[in-house]
Amino acid sequence: MYIKESKGFPEDFLWGAASAAYQVEGAYDEDGKGLSSWDAFVKIPGKTFKGTTGDVAVDHYHRYKEDVKLMAYIGLKTYRFSISWSRIFPEGNGKLNEKGLQFYDDLINECIKYKIKPMVTLYHWDMPQSLIDQYGGWESRQSVDDFVNYAKVCFSHYGDRVKHWIIMNEQNVFTSHGWMLGTHPPGKINDLKMFYQVNHHVFMAHAYSVLALKEMYDDALVGSSFAFSPSYALTNKPEDALSKQDYDTLQSYYWMDVYAYGRYPRAALSYLESLNVKIEMEPWDEDILKRSALLIDFMGVNYYQTTTVAYNPPQGVNNLNGENNSGKKGTKAVTGIPGLYMNPSNDFLDKTDWDWAIDPSGLRFACRDITSRYDLPIIISENGLGAFDKIEDGKIHDPYRVDYLREHIKELKKACDEGCRILSYCVWSFTDVLSWLNGYQKRYGLVYVDRDEEENSGTLKRIPKYSYYWYKKVIESNGENL
What we know:
This is Beta-glucosidase A. The protein is of the alpha/beta class. The chain has one domain (14-476): TIM Barrel, CATH 3.20.20.80. It has helices spanning 21-24, 37-41, 60-73, 85-88, 98-113, 129-135, 142-158, 171-179, 192-216, 238-261, 266-274, 285-293, 360-374, 399-417, 466-476; strands at residues 14-18, 78-82, 117-123, 164-169, 221-227, 231-233, 299-302, 307-311, 335-337, 341-343, 378-383, 422-428, 447-449, 462-464. Strand 11 (378-383), helix 14 (399-417) and strand 12 (422-428) form a beta-alpha-beta unit.
């Protein structure tokens, strides 16, 4: 859409950066914390790159003051972080851990001290292992009650200072990797019925938590973050266009429609019925989902890449997991579901070393699509580039990351001009983090952390990258100086 003159970003725009508890905190068994699903999963041989774990991660638990001070220097407006459920409830339910509550009190207060608004994610993939041992975790309806109890404790304890809440992070990712691909806890493969049942339990946990928060703090802003990869049809053939519709329904709208409308897409339910997959619900679930949908304040978006879609014949590609976890460019396999769609590479786009398509315009596409379909404000809760960063002369030169972020912010600015209500943009990530399946070699941070794959290797020293100083200028100019 042609806009003659840009209005720029809103004056109260929240420039931020993000992290997740398991990927940065470390201290996995300190101060009363219980084991999470990831603490247990990474101990299974072959599950992570070179056996990497988050036992130490980048030691944010002990170094949060240093990290927040670095955030303050560049003028960060918000810091998005997650709370570890097993740090608050070591067993997932039962007795509270006061030291766990205190850590997040201290982190939140440290942010506020520097006028950085805390943006809190309640669930970033780390289910308490005890709940999996007790009843199968998300596979049981009991998980809804235990999650909502945990959420209410967080709301009541931190809600006087935290006004931005993200309930779930990338529900589509942790459920597909956990019950279809076998690469995340609990490591199950092609368990289609349980995949959809687990998603329903997570949706109910989200919905009840939204209702609980609004009852306690009606001025709080709440939503969940979705890993959105907008799609392009490979050609203008009608079968490719219809396959794109199938992909969008089953891979995107299935989640966003529930958050925003409180209902599942009809086409998706018809597809599941054809596979004899029936979601078990309580009689009141639909009402709770719809009530929650009326109360959410934004759609959270984690954006990294777009997807190309083509028709896939019944005897075609049958592969769900084509991920490149090695960083060797060009090794990603084509994925697809026979009779529905396949996802070939987009030859018009460059790729990262992990074969993720670099497509800044896709971020604008995502915002326009959400605005048109749901008419909700948007928080970009993650966007960033994973790369092989190297220290040279004591510095990290990452102009490739600056190029990536600059082009995405340009497109986000255009989205604002086109009527999208963007509340915040959070770079993934502030410091380097443990990449779930790619170890410490895949670096995303604005701040370099000196460590390697092996636990306790490196000094954990923080070294701001070139992109860190560049982002400072972006924030100071409210997105004008790119």
